[in-house]
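Quick start: what a row looks like.
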Amino acid sequence: MTPRPVITLLTDFGSRDPYVGMMKGVIAGICPEANVIDVTHEVPPQDVRVGAFFLERAARYFPPGTVHVAVVDPGVGTTRAPIALEAAGQFFVGPDNGLLCLAAARYRAVRLEDRRFFLPRVSTTFHGRDVFAPVAARIAQGEELKQFGPSLRRIVKIPWPRPRRGKRAIAGEIVAIDRFGNLITNLEPADWRSLGRPRLSAGAFSATKLCATYASVPKGQLAFVVGGYGLIEIAAREASAEAKLGLRVGDPVRLRGA
């Protein structure tokens, strides 16, 4: 039995308007056998950096051959290129504005130019529906990337904060805040393990224990845990760490060895 092709959608469209439904309608008309999965439509509006982070963290859980459509596109209709690429056995379709770069360290990319694969009428304001959705459906059906347009040697990159390593310390920062108020850092569990008897500090909170669960501490108390992103985060049991500490994206986090 041939598995159904998988297409994912990640946007900043939200759920109030019919934009996501329109994209799904286009995909259904071209590739009705596709299994269309919503990654999220709650990327903060026009926040390419957060969208790139979400895409990179989510893509690792999808099977080879998955086609990811990502649309956080403040430059839609301008000179920014529409692109498709293959990276690590998966495909990515979206604007060339840095949105795809974190998920695609090594890639084979093309600029989308062959209008045969677009909708007959392409608007200047909704390439998600008119360009990216139909192209993704064609890729899911087995169309080769080279059919869509010329090769691209480079795609747009956006800066992403990497932990900075010192002799006995690692400096990181908060890179996202989820709906529970958990403060997501750019520190990996391996960073914690690399230092002997480490202490992790963020704002007014510090601890020497990396907890296994959110329930490892009493209700309302703060803890460091490895969260759903696979990164170290600051959480408050049944409360908001964001509210308790007043920290924001970009604020520093420090890991020190004994």
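That is the whole record. The mean pLDDT is 96. The radius of gyration is 20 Å.
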